[in-house]
Write a structure and sequence with these properties.
six-stranded antiparallel beta sheet; 448 residues; single chain; 31% helix; alpha/beta
Length: 448
């Protein structure tokens, strides 16, 4: 009995739940005879106007509450653990899994492999569907858990079984067709591994997924990420600049085809491909509303558009200021052109410092994987100037920690300088023109 239902963590004052005298610690077991397994069940059943709710109070009493309410009125309860309970873990052994390539002693959460369809619906996490059976598929369809974000990688059944290390991986097209028939919107991705799922395999995958349009509404192709910690793992190679150029060219041609047949470009590549290939990122129109931003598809275009807006109002001169902006290898390509323009402002000197990823290996070039110790080891405190600016993407959300558990206070203290964290070009310019108080947050160094 103790494992059933959802435990209330908080009651919203003045809500229906408060009127019914529900309290933290009470457990909601069922609504209108249907078991409440998680927050998704609760939200789905809660929409009815007439509710019969089975409750077991914190004191062990069994209540049955009859409630009449408006369709769009919620009960006003919040649950422990976010209401989703235990996360379903990944049971695959993907040949490209980034978690398997990480060294020990990082944040514990970084080693957690989730593959939970509920988190795909709730938070946009990518899932493989290998642990989703008929019962779960029926629930997704019945409760309209849409959109979902699905890691496909290939629609070739045998190849997918090999790539994911899971016998059930070959069922992907059957699962996608079921979800499509149920009207579930899906965004898909391919982690491109040269020599494995590229070339004709990628062409076939794109064709198969486009055949399920509009339910499958986008496909993102992202390059495999490899670290230096790959002992005894499947032999893989990174995408080369030449291969990136080929993929970018292929995607451009496929987008033309899909625009003609679907009135949508459908297939996209992550920004890394364009930067690695030395190509310009497409115009906004080619991103079809940016459905795959979390996959790094279109972030550079949005950055450049925001920069173009703020560039129009830059001053001719400011009080003397020397600033260092530190970023990953790919980020430096974009920020380099920004710095050129900023340095035309009299009194301002901006230096872009490219941080090589010695921690994970120099094949890792994205800014979000830059660690605190690489910043410390590669930045000369005497060359920083008045301020060090870092992108917030280097930090864990809502925690001032780098991937290697170094705190921002540790960094600022070691470098003995003020460190400002910014989210984009507008905030960067505000910090430069109006001061560090305009940053997302700012940390003082010992001697700053």
């Amino acid at each position: 009995m103790q494992d059933r239902g959802l435990i209330i963590a908080r009651i919203v004052p003045g809500s229906i739940a408060a009127e019914m005298e529900l309290a933290p610690g009470d457990r909601i077991i069922s609504i209108n005879g249907s078991e409440v397994r998680d927050l998704i069940d609760f939200r789905f059943f809660e929409t009815e106007e007439n509710l019969t709710i089975e409750v077991i109070t914190a004191g062990g009493e069994e209540w049955v509450l009859d409630i009449e309410k408006d369709y769009d009125e919620d009960l006003g309860v919040e649950f422990t653990e976010g209401g989703l309970g235990r996360t379903t873990r990944c049971s695959n052994r993907c040949v490209f899994c980034f978690v398997d390539q990480m060294p020990p002693a990082l944040r514990k959460s970084l080693y957690v492999k989730d593959d939970d369809y509920r988190l795909s619906f709730w938070s946009g996490n990518y899932i493989t569907l290998t642990n989703v059976g008929d019962e779960e598929l029926e629930r997704i369809a019945r409760q309209r858990l849409s959109p979902l974000f699905i890691s496909v990688h290939t629609t070739n059944p045998e190849l997918r079984r090999t790539m994911l290390g899971n016998k059930r991986a070959g069922l992907i097209m059957e699962q996608l067709k079921f979800l499509a028939a149920a009207g579930i919107e899906m965004h898909t991705q391919v982690v491109l591994c040269p020599g494995i799922n590229d070339g004709s395999e990628l062409q076939n995958t794109a064709a198969d997924l486009a055949g399920l349009w509009p339910s499958v509404s986008s496909l993102a192709v992202v390059p495999v990420g490899l670290t230096q910690f790959r002992e005894s793992l499947y032999p893989l190679s990174s995408v080369t600049p030449t291969e990136a150029q080929q993929v970018v060219k292929w995607v451009g041609l496929k987008q033309e085809e899909f625009l003609a047949s679907l009135d949508n470009p459908f297939v996209f590549v992550s920004d890394e491909f364009y930067l690695l290939a030395g190509e310009q990122v497409p115009a906004s129109e080619r991103y079809a509303g940016f459905p795959q931003l979390e996959n790094g598809v279109g972030l550079v275009r949005l950055f450049l558009e925001e920069w173009e807006e703020v560039e129009q109002s830059l001053p001719l001169e400011i009080e003397p200021l020397r600033v260092t902006i530190a970023t990953g290898a790919l980020g430096a390509i974009v920020l380099g052109q920004v710095a050129v323009r900023l340095n035309r402002i009299r009194g301002l000197k901006v230096t872009v410092k490219t941080i090589e990823n010695c921690f994970f290996g120099q094949q890792v070039t994205v800014t979000g994987l830059v660690t605190g110790q690489d910043l410390i080891n590669q930045i000369n405190p005497r060359e920083i100037g008045d301020l060090l600016v870092l992108p917030t993407i280097m930090l864990k959300q809502e925690e001032n920690l780098f991937l290697d558990n170094l705190t921002v206070a540790d960094l600022a203290g070691y470098l003995k300088t003020r460190v400002a964290f910014v989210r984009g070009p507008r905030q960067l310019v505000e910090v430069l023109l109006e001061g560090p108080d305009k940053a997302e947050f700012c940390v003082e160094g010992k001697d700053s």
